[in-house]
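Comment thread on ticket #2218

A.B. wrote:
> Attaching the input chain for the structure job we discussed in standup.
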Amino acid sequence: MAVIGVGSLGQHHAGKLANFSDVDLVGVVDPNEKFGREVANRVSTRWFASAADLPNNLDGVVIATPTVYHLEAARSFLEAGVATFVEKPLATNVADAELLNQLANANDAILQVGHIERFNPAFALAQNIVGHPLYIRCQRVSPYSFRSTDIGVVHDLMIHDIDLVLALTNQLPDSVDAFGAVGIGPHEDMAVARLKMPSGTIVDITSSRMCPAAERTMQIWGTEGCVVADLQSREVQQWKPAAKFKANPALAHAIAAATPDPRTLKDSVFGEWIESKTLQAGDDDAMSLELREFIASIQENRTPLVSGREAVNAMTVAEKVLDAIHLWSYQTGSVATPKRAAA
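C.D. wrote:
> Ran it. Output below, let me know if you need it in another format.
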């Protein structure tokens, strides 16, 4: 295998692949020779200035270049039938993302996209216990990192939660409303979106890279109660009706009616009427898990968990958010309206 682009994310991909006993990391590619050689030496492999110089017997590549180069970097490998892992977002726009997905299908090449939160054990746990989601609220905010400045916060951060929401609901939204703001720019640095799904599920997503403290949480109201997942600490909390109240919802009203002062019941709600539990998800490294999934997909010749189709779907929704966004600029004080209404 080889890694194309060893910047902030690519160097970590290279480090993990170099430590896998069943992977021979034959090289890293980066146009910055000094930095590329440093990473190559660190992981005991070779540096190449161009992907064209790599050995031609590769089983797979990881592409972690800036987003604007994803199409160019991935295209030749997919056309050659080489399994390709591309960091999210798959491309700068839906048309390019769809092209890469079609190239993968046409050449029988595995295409996996780095939506890493799918491999977060806290999300996996929440997904297993929530039942059918009825309302989802996602909060993903952080300080400005000065990386991924070639894309806005919708493609940088929000797309993570869009992908998680699509995985939870197995649907694309009927409608999208959005608002955003430019802080440092040149793209949007804050965005909020409301998605309405065909099933009636409502989704609210807040993303910002202009927040003094980092937070990554999901609150999901589902048919099995309410689940709150902290994707950083990996703590998952669940509240759901106790068995007797779930079997007989009117029981709560009957108890209240038979109590002289119903206000005295408030301490019974949580614990007796509503069961509450806190679970701690595993501490497995999500990047290692997604790379192991990529390797297993190559070894077993199967479709990975996050394929090109899932990535295209996430980008389609992200583009609808950008189309619907009313963008306020801190620098100019003006609000730009969408070029066309999102569908």
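A.B. wrote:
> Thanks. Noting for the ticket: Residues 143 and 224 are 34 Å apart (CA to CA).
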